[in-house]
Specification:
- 4 copies of one chain form a homotetramer.
- Chain A starts with 7 loop residues before the first strand and ends with a helix.
- Chain A contains 11 helices and 11 strands.
- With 329 residues, chain A is of the alpha/beta class.
- Chain A folds into 2 domains: 183 residues, Rossmann fold, CATH 3.40.50; 120 residues, 3-Layer(aba) Sandwich (Rossmann fold), CATH 3.40.50.460.
- Chains in contact: A-B, A-D, B-C, C-D.
- Chains A, B, C, D: One of its GO terms (molecular function) is 6-phosphofructokinase activity.
- Chains A, B, C, D: Pathway: Carbohydrate degradation; glycolysis; D-glyceraldehyde 3-phosphate and glycerone phosphate from D-glucose: step 3/4.
- Chains A, B, C, D: Belongs to the phosphofructokinase type A (PFKA) family. ATP-dependent PFK group I subfamily. Prokaryotic clade 'B1' sub-subfamily.
């Protein structure tokens, strides 16, 4: 915890967009304005920080965005920010603009980058976990996770209709490069016959056996939910592995990669409330003199976690849910 | 905790239906079948228990219901069950059917009634919190709450469109007879200008002042979310109170009572996972010899709470959210 | 058909808002800009016309509104416009602003008012049918009808869940003051046991008989869809009429008035395409020298209808659908 | 038109499933039952016809399916039915079951197959157009088209959120092997910058130029909607073609193939009404002695078209919509 005078803060989003980022921006801006702080929106994340793409914000700037997906401040990749020169330019811009502190909304890449900036240039940053992957330590849920989950589940419900109509096997790939949070919850919520996640070994033999026994016994459809970061490399790879086995010749197998639709859409109630709490909480943390922390919600309460821990510590899935998924399918 | 031999259990839903009840039934049935237990579905709650409206259930009986709103076992009111004779008849039917224990899915009325049955006739019961109102102590969320919340919020988003188009004041009544859980989350999630809940005093003067200042300053729409159990008695009563003030003559005020649509619909991902955990958890509690408890999820973990506490102890809203709602609107 | 030089047009929405109005505004603006015309947005309908509440519009002004409910130009009632003085003021403002012609988007009230303006002050107007009620002659569907229908149907699906769970009778009131278009399509689409619409006599005796026979025979839920403009006066009145009969004492009857949620929400694909065609079509009609007409889609093609006919001629429901509804329920 | 005694009909679905097929089955069954006809459900299309997979149906068999996607009668491919022997077996089964006539619900493959059966074995068939592709001559819309369109559009709206957040170019592939109905309506409804359909030549040079000029001028996101049957071969092929041009090195381009989610889901109001009309209409056509025809809705009215015309004649897209799409984007 550091002490710092606060008169003007910057807010930005970075990394993959997540539904609820706008609700978070809105809460941060309104909470700051209520305390008499000036607020600068930094557009396109670190790229905009380097280019000085700044916009003054007030209560009205964030009207009517609570329910919108995406991020009005936009996001972008920035190779230049990976260099010390890029970060120096960004820090200079922040100083020139009179920005005392930052609210950074994004995933682990965003928080890591902000930590470099903080360390090298003494910039005060508080982070908000904004990523559909739910893979940040220090918060029970990240902004966007609940919405992405419901979008994926809605698609799985639709696929179930067509799978049932044709007694097909569907391999549905959902997001989750390193974690199975979306896949696991979708699997239970969608009644999937099998869920494949990065946290568990993918034993192709066992998968085949399970599918064949299900399809044989019940002569019906099966849905396998696959996290994109599954060991074998996603739904298409699983399909290839299955197709090498002649036992699967008779099984009408289809792949559906849900992809980018999981990022968009109006946030759910839960994501809007979470994002509102976190956005306001980040400003409150700054006001209380905190820096280098991410604000999260743990067991219902706001909690600060040192930035570094958010990516270095592993947030684990609930293995009871893995068992439950197998028991109920 | 009592000890009891378990070979055959009964499952039923009672009270107001809630999205996710089917997912809970499915999980209880499949979890029980996996342990070699017989399962009897009791139709129409306590009414069916008295009439012996029983149906044998297996894994297939609960296929394809996970995503459906309502309850396949139906629910009903039973005045007869309020009498000792009614409960005696119910207990006799259970014995005759060879039912050793019950999984009761419903709200506080359901759990209270089951406690009478347990006390008077030594029936083993474990409860699952199924009610959109989220007003049971012993679980962070009840089955159906998240879905009802999203349904209400979706309606509020739609009303915002028309409120904005006409610069109108809308009083939107959501469910919550004794508690403001839905109203409060909807208020934050929908960006409501004001939220009126049973837990807070309703000062008509303050309400008027707030609305008038908002409408004057910004010449725009306002949405007030009112819990049905608000002190004044719901949205229509608020409107009446406002209309007595000539200052409101110029304000185009409309009432929208969302009503029963909040009970239906396909459950959200969160409700499906919660209901699956609780249904399976209830059976596990029975297997471990528990009785007279409700299974809930507290801080992410399954937890048993003595039945009586679930309604006698007050589950409180998060007053930080009340403040947040006021700050952000 | 009159001839007129066209360099600058005004666009406005009036009356009850309808989903798709923004798509219509967008199409009119972009179509006009593509022809080199200037475009002025008139805010809050006729009220804004009298107050000179004008805003210059270009392609960018209508970016990202296609999918939004409500109307960015807002709508309002104007008592002043009902007076010759009010209309004279409006006409003077239009002349002062250099507006040669108007695209009026709204329902019958909007088109009637614009006809007064046209007649008295020689203002060139082409209308677009924007109302969820679908009650304008000269177009197979009005902008917003399809969305309102799907919103109402989604609510009826939800109510079906809870009606089934409790074997209840639900009286669901949908919009339609003078016409049963929404009610009839909702009734067929929702599998309603009965549909009551303004176009048909409401014989309370026959209604009772039908409901009693359904509930008796099948001991299940029933849904009666009631247009707000039903002869008896809506769902609450029907309920009262039923409650006077002791035969209904045993039937758990509930009323749900869907109300304003039917006006909002993101427009359906059909409404977006329709609104885009009509907005562009209105500008094309102006370019071709037409005036005093409404542009509609009849049997798939754009068609112009003299303004007066749109409200003086009666658009009839399809009586085959009434029969179909009865046959299938 | 042939004359035939009618006492017992068969109903089946075949080919790709489409939302609304269940509503069509329900209407056909209930309409037939109301006329005193017996109804046999043939499961899994022609495969079930050959295997004698028949199920007796009555009013209750089709309760509560109106709102469900997929088809309760299931669908399947049948290579055996492509042989004269297979069809002979099917015809024998129909005779043995006492089935006088068939209602065939499906796309062009289904109708062609039924025509072979009719020709070779004098089986009376009336068809209902059930396919999301909308590519059958003789009906303005096919069952499932409106739902698929709205599902695709909802995905495009979500993709727009993330495209905007990152200023990306998205190539979104929607269904439509031979026709651009879905793509074109989605393009207009989603405000796509470009729509590529099988009916139009795909000039890669022109595409590149258009995209580059859009992205340069406005430095913003672009969405290109591609029908799967586009000349170049879908979104992935387009991407490859673009990536060969160094001008696209700077443009962050993503592909999203919506795939099977377009087949499922609860049907829209429009699809439910259409399917109900067609299912009932097919039975009425049989009752009136028709055979070898498909029932469609043309300009709002039921219309019979000789089976052969439904696939041999080309249903054309509305080229005015192609122009409109270009004008408004």
């Amino acid at each position: 915890m550091t002490s710092h005078e606060l008169t003007r803060i910057g807010v930005f989003t970075s990394g993959g967009d997540a539904p609820g980022m706008n609700a978070c921006i809105r809460a941060a801006v309104r909470r700051a304005v209520a305390e008499g702080l000036g607020v600068v929106g930094i557009r396109r994340g670190y790229a905009g920080m380097i280019e000085g793409d700044f916009v003054e914000m007030d209560r009205q700037s964030v009207s009517n965005i609570l329910q919108q997906g995406g991020t009005i401040l936009k996001s972008a990749r920035s190779d230049e920010f990976r260099t010390p020169e890029g970060r120096a330019k960004a820090a200079a811009n922040l100083r020139a603009e009179g920005i005392d502190a930052l609210v950074a909304i994004g995933g682990d890449g965003t928080l890591q980058a902000s930590t470099h900036l903080a360390t090298e240039h003494d910039v005060v940053v508080v982070g908000c976990p904004g990523t559909i992957d739910n893979d940040l330590f220090g918060t029970d849920e990240t902004i966007g996770f609940d919405t992405a989950l419901n979008t994926a589940l809605d698609s799985i419900d639709k696929i179930r209709d067509t799978a049932d109509a044709h007694d097909r096997l569907f391999l549905v790939e959902v997001m989750g490069r390193d974690t199975g949070f979306i896949a696991l919850a979708c699997g239970i919520g969608g009644g999937a016959e099998l869920v494949l996640i990065p946290e568990m070994l993918t034993d192709v033999g066992a998968i085949k056996e399970r599918i064949l026994s299900l399809m044989a016994a019940q002569s019906r459809s099966s849905i396998v939910v696959v996290a994109e970061g599954d060991e074998l490399g996603g739904a298409h790879m699983i399909r290839e592995a299955l197709s090498e086995d002649p036992a699967f010749d008779q099984i009408d197998t289809r792949v559906s990669v849900l992809g980018h639709i999981q990022r968009g859409g109006s946030p759910t109630a839960r994501d809007r409330v979470l994002a509102s709490r976190l956005g306001a909480g980040a400003v409150e943390a700054l006001l209380e003199g905190h820096a280098g922390v991410m604000v999260g919600v743990v067991n219902g309460d706001l909690k600060l976690t040192p930035m570094r821990n958010t990516w270095s510590r592993k947030k684990t899935i609930d293995y009871d849910l893995v068992q439950l998924s197998a028991l109920l399918s």
